[in-house]
Amino acid sequence: MKQEPVGLFEKYFIIWFRIVTERIWTGDKKFRNTIVAILLFGILNVFLLTGSVKDFFRLGEAAVYDIPSTLYGLNDKGEYEPIAEYYKFSRIPVKLEQLKPEDTNYSTDNRHKVIQCFLSTEDNSFYSHNGIDLKGIARAFVVNLMAGRVKEGASTITQQVARLKFLSIERSIARKAREAWLAILLELVYPKDKILEVYLNEIPLGHGTIGVGAASRFYFRKEVQDLSWGEAAILASLTTRPTQFSPIVNPVSSMNKVRVVFRKLVENGRMTVADAEKEYAALEEYYTNLNRSPNDSAFSDRLNRFHYVTEYIRKNLIRSIGSSRLYNGGLKIYSTIQIRHQEEAEKALLPALQRQTIESNQRAFRNIDAFDDLYGSGYSLIADLYDLPEFKFKISKIERTFSSAYQEDIRDEFYALNLLTGDDFLGDTLDKNYSTQNTKDHLLPVEGSLIAIRPETGYITALVGGSGFRSDNQQIRPFQAFRQPGSAFKPILYAAAMDHSGKNPDPEKNVTPATLFADSPLQYLMEDGDEWAPENYSSEYSGFILLRKALEQSKNSVAVRVLEQVGLSNLMESLRGLLQLQGRDIPYNFSVSLGSFELTPYELTRAYAALASGGKTVNPISVLYVEDNAGKVIKDFRKDYEDVERKQIISKEAAFLITSMMKDVVEEGTGRGVLSYGLNRKAYGKTGTTNNFRDAWFVGYTPELVTSVWFGYDVGTISLGRGMTGGKLSAPVWGRFMARALEKEPAKEFPWLSDVKITKRTVCRMSGKLPSGQCHDLLEEYFIPQTVPKDVCNDHGSAWNVVESKPQSPVTQKPVETKKQDTKVEKKPTESKPPKRKKSVFSGDEEIDY
């Protein structure tokens, strides 16, 4: 038979056992030696059952608490301010020194009332025993024997500390033995006051509270040092069965148990009968005014000012430092969130989403029994064939019918009747029901996203993930909502195209803000035989148009022609670098030009941040560093951030050109709505609206901040309603947020402008070429030096009237407003305006018909 291997320790023990046995039986006093050996082995067995060598090394953990971690954000003064807490159980550590002595004549013991209440009920002889109260054990044995049940416990406060810190709650002789052993060790290592302090901070007191500090704040909204005798007695009454004796769950049982606490105080000489009756009577007001849900917990009381931010950072930290350390380590987490930015983001977006929910008026599907009625029998057959799970609802049809009828009909009648009867409890219940209902009459909530990033540092300063953080709405949409960006993608495409032209100049294919493109209908025959015919939002076309004007008016046909002229393969590397997609690639087809593939708001905002950074990638960060409870940095995310190289994806010149073009979008184009709230600085951005008005975007920046705003339904096929474009919905929210968030920050210029090499030339507004003597409608335009047009405009007269302009040297410029001339642009007589088509209900700012 295969034998289990014997280790070195086992071999040594066997040899030692033989030697000891031999000595016992070889001497003259064999009987005495046998008795001593039995006693020694008995003591050894008891030690092995109740104790361990490891216990001596664990004693230091007794004074270490699991403390909630705190998340900090920056206020207007540049100081860190708590914005959230992370914990599973609430604990507020209390030092015994904080509990000042009582200035009363109740007894000779002038300790704080909280200490006296707990000593009287749990261990009145705490300061006289050595960890185990033998008299208490004997008394409890007699009481329980006479009662025929466990009526009185015999654990001292020291034993309870040993159990709370090191043991489980199972009831067994072995556990009680270990409890006693550990209590003796604790008494040897710690002074009495320290053991009592640990006990007051470790005792569970119900509703998710651990310790008297957290319980005091939860039950009474007070600090523990400010409690009255009655309130201290309530806390002391919760040590055995917190749920049963909770004043919130069972007020009557609680009052009876508090009476027992006062009786103990009287029996132990800490209070007189008259004083106890007076303090007990003073509790009547507390119980009378107690109006809280039995389901209330300390978790709902935790500091959490910005729910979406808290949840996003929580998920990231669990991956990097672990959940146990996050919830119990007392960490200090310093984030990049700016409190003013976050507050203004929620003030701007959340009310707009609520208004849009009513405006869009999309109702949830309510005939949920239709499937069962129409296809229930067929489903049974399919389920048998393919081993599918049973089709069933979580709640019955009767419950659904009643819930719907109550919300729409019965509740209003109840409310009207209650106005006549005046029942306060019913009135409060109905008011709470109305206030907690997030959508009316089964309206689907319009969701949204707002995320703001500093372009130079990558700091995320604000984050809103939807219409409201609830148990049924916890999606963090800036990172989890994959939606088509529509025309909001055009600046990225145009920047990449102009960058390619600057690096590979070709007079026939150069793309510049003054390049002339045909704005006319397009139609493509796809490989599968389908036709793709992208259209403009208005279904109207302008003939030939400069690229700057095409972006301002969000011309879809021009975007397709830009991609066709440059070639998608020539732009793919730049597009990938700007978007930095993880685990997926950009589709290789022309519909990319219209933003037909899905991005998250975060990815799109990061790409715009690269434009605002002069063509350099931006690596967003939300947490800077994490400190432990002693102030030591345990995780520095800034080092990880600095180790990631910021790559120059496109040239500063291309970033400058697209920035100047987006300035026109804000001031004269589809993004004029951002100016509604008095933004006192230059802004650059682009609207976006996808097919059938399913998504509404505005993404833009100032030198200080890059922000995106998105509106839409979680179900991507549902329309926001006719005319609900990015310019109408998202642009005003963006403008309000930026105006309020940056209100106290000084305006500044882009730091990379001094390195930009741009040529400014006068061109013909009609052709985008160098003007001749016949050109009267001119504009000042910016060019990458290699892409300056060389052709002279001859669209206004014969060739001999051409006057060439003197070449100008490259100069460094900042984005400025392009001034319009009063002179109207002549149209070629051969060009004819296509007939106006009837606007379709299903058309959007970017018609992506594929």
From TrEMBL:
Keywords of the record: Carboxypeptidase, Cell shape, Cell wall biogenesis/degradation, Glycosyltransferase, Hydrolase, Membrane, Multifunctional enzyme, Peptidoglycan synthesis, Protease, Transferase, Transmembrane, Transmembrane helix
Transmembrane feature ranges: 31-49
UniProt catalytic activity: [GlcNAc-(1->4)-Mur2Ac(oyl-L-Ala-gamma-D-Glu-L-Lys-D-Ala-D-Ala)](n)-di-trans,octa-cis-undecaprenyl diphosphate + beta-D-GlcNAc-(1->4)-Mur2Ac(oyl-L-Ala-gamma-D-Glu-L-Lys-D-Ala-D-Ala)-di-trans,octa-cis-undecaprenyl diphosphate = [GlcNAc-(1->4)-Mur2Ac(oyl-L-Ala-gamma-D-Glu-L-Lys-D-Ala-D-Ala)](n+1)-di-trans,octa-cis-undecaprenyl diphosphate + di-trans,octa-cis-undecaprenyl diphosphate + H(+)
Penicillin-binding protein transpeptidase domain segment(s): 448-738
Glycosyl transferase family domain sequence ranges: 112-265
Organism: Leptospira yanagawae
Region (Disordered): 805-850
Name of the protein described by the UniProt record: peptidoglycan glycosyltransferase
Major enzyme class: transferase
Cellular localisation: Membrane
Family note: In the N-terminal section; belongs to the glycosyltransferase 51 family. In the C-terminal section; belongs to the transpeptidase family.
Transmembrane helix as UniProt keyword: yes
Pfam families, per the entry: Transgly, Transpeptidase
Enzyme Commission (EC) number: 2.4.99.28
